[in-house]
Amino acid sequence: MADQQYEYGMIGLGTMGRNLLLNMVDRGFSVAGYDKDPNTLELLNKEGAGKNLHAFATLEQFIQSLKQPRVIIILVPAGRIVDAVIEEVKPFLNSNDLLVDCGNSHFTDTNRRINHLNDQGIHFMGTGVSGGEAGARFGPSIMPGGNAEAYQMVKPVFEAIAAKTNGVPCVAYMGKGSAGHYVKMVHNGIEYAIMQAIAESYQMLKQLGGLNNTELQVIFESYNQSAIRCYLLEITSAIFSEPDDLTENRLLDMILDSARQKGTGAWSSQDAMNLMVPTPAIDASVVQREISGLKNERIFASNVLNGPDNDALLGHDGLVPVIEDTLHFCMICIYAQGLALIKAASQQYQYDTDPVQVASVWRDGCIIRADMLEDIRKAFQQEPALQNLVVSELFAGRLNKLQKHTRSAIISAVSAGIPVPVMMSNLAYYDSYRSAWLPANLLQAQRDFFGAHTYERIDRTGSFHTNWQALTDNNG
Fold first, then answer.
1. Could you write out the three-class secondary structure of 21-76?
2. Which of the residues 50, 80, 90, 209 has the least number of beta carbons within 10 Å of its own beta carbon?
3. What is the percent of the chain with per-residue pLDDT over 90, rounded to a whole number?
4. Does residue 393 have an active-site annotation?
5. Residue 28 sits in the same domain as residue 89
6. Both 73 and 95 in a single domain?
7. Which of 94, 40, 36, 87 is nearest to 64 (CA)?
8. Same domain, 135 and 206
9. Active-site residue, from 191, 200, 324, 343
10. Same domain assignment for residues 139 and 255
């Protein structure tokens, strides 16, 4: 192996890194790997036996095995570990070498690393990768961002290993700087919201419809054969039929109702608030995971706080199509909120991200892949100046029709005391966005009353302040 010169290198040979390397070598590329764990090295060399692949035990051997300019992909947990890897490998690098971070790094860290390495002429790209273990091995969705010229160094391999939609690779240049990691962050925020919308549908069908797991499996399978066909519905259907190895129950019924998060959904909400972009469905999904984590508190509260009296089953005959339309409504609004955030971030951070490319890349390989993403791609392609997906020619009519069942579903849930925060957030988003008038004039007046923050008028430009007289004697 000492004389072999490999085209691409990978640092971090865990599940994702190992499978990406195997995907690359299967597509005809020569690849080298490095990891500090000897067991991981042994596993990759065993799986790569007879292929144009080798895992090295020392960083120096790994670096020396790569063709120049070197292209090294980093796939380690986000945070300080990425910085540690960069500092460890940097002394061995030359000008025009390229480091590609394919982990879930925060976009601000990516900006910092780009600037840090740019001083030495070393390129750094933040690249989102979605699809999990199977996607890495057989075709993920890839979201690269950074220097456009440096992207050409990885474009051939990324296009070869990515998932394909109608023969088109699910990879595209997302824009300058940290655009790749930003788009992946929003991808994960959308993922949070769609998962929560599906979970709310599950709760309604289970508690209001009285459906068992076998019936739920059939219903969610039918949902996945409709206009809302997507990967998350596909796996949801499969989950209902999975048996538990330890009991005679279905596995789902034995899983604790307390979900965790790794932070990417919250990152989306946090930056949306910084940019003043409304993403209520993503916000609600993050909050609901946090509430689910309060398991002991919820158990106590269930014995103290009452719900409504009318908790009778509604039956599933009319509920099943209502839920289907509600999920359809929610998915459109969720994608709309996520893409509006990307649009605002592209302007604020000067990414130059094309929403057509974003939707195209998400059509396959990633966790939020769905049939409707083809129509989303078309919507932005047909209307380049489109401000929000909900008012596009392709989707406005759908939302107008779907809202009726969405309102019915939410009314039923509220009447039964079932929490549906993402469904409600999407409907409130729709109703707010379509309202030519909102009561924000009162908010302006309140702010000016208690804090002299001024207000704007409808009949003239500028800022105004009033010495409000209503509470002159009791204004505290």
1. HHHHHHCCCCEEEECCCHHHHHHHHHHCCCCCEEEECCHHHHHHCECCCCEEEECC
2. 50
3. 88
4. no
5. yes
6. yes
7. 94
8. no
9. 191
10. no
Whether the CB-CB separation of 182 and 109 falls below 8 Å is answered with: no
Range of the domain at 33: 8-177
| Residue 146 belongs to some domain of the structure | yes
Mean pLDDT of the chain: 94
Q: What pLDDT digit, counting tens, does each position of 179-214 carry? A: 999 999 999 999 999 999 999 999 999 999 999 999
184 given a catalytic annotation: yes
Q: How does pLDDT run across 256-268, given as a tens digit for each residue?
A: 999 977 778 899 9
Task: With cut-offs at 50, 70 and 90, classify the pLDDT of residue 476.
Answer: very low
Residues 458, 329, single domain; the answer is: no
Which residues does 62 contact at the CB level (< 8 Å), separation at least 6? 9, 11, 32, 33, 34, 56
Q: Are 410 and 423 in contact (CB under 8 A)?
A: yes
**What does DSSP say about strands 123-130 and 141-145: parallel, antiparallel, or unpaired?**
antiparallel
Cis peptide before 69 (omega within 30 of 0): yes
pTM of the model: 0.95
pLDDT tens across 127-173, in order?
Answer: 999 998 899 999 999 999 999 999 999 999 999 999 999 999 999 99
Closest among 324, 329, 334, 364 to 225, alpha carbons compared:
324
Q: Total domain count for the chain?
A: 3
Whether the CB-CB separation of 356 and 183 falls below 8 Å is answered with no
The CATH number for 415's domain is 1.10.1040.10
Contact call for residues 281 and 422 (beta carbons, < 8 A):
yes
Which two three-digit tokens encode residue 361?
Answer: 């890349």
Judge whether 322 lies within some domain: yes
Cβ-based neighbours of 151, under 8 Å, separated by 6 or more: 125, 144, 173
| CB-based contact 209:320 (threshold 8 Å) | yes
Integer Cα distance of 56 and 62 in angstroms = 6
Spell out the residues 6+ positions from residue 442 whose beta carbon is closer than 8 angstroms to its own: none
Which of 176, 184, 324, 343 is catalytic? The answer is 184
In-domain check, residue 131: yes
Do 379 and 243 lie in one domain? The reply is yes
CATH number at residue 461: 1.20.5.320
For the chain, how far is it from start to end, CA to CA, in angstroms? 81
Within-domain flag for 284 = yes
Q: Are residues 68 and 148 in the same domain?
A: yes
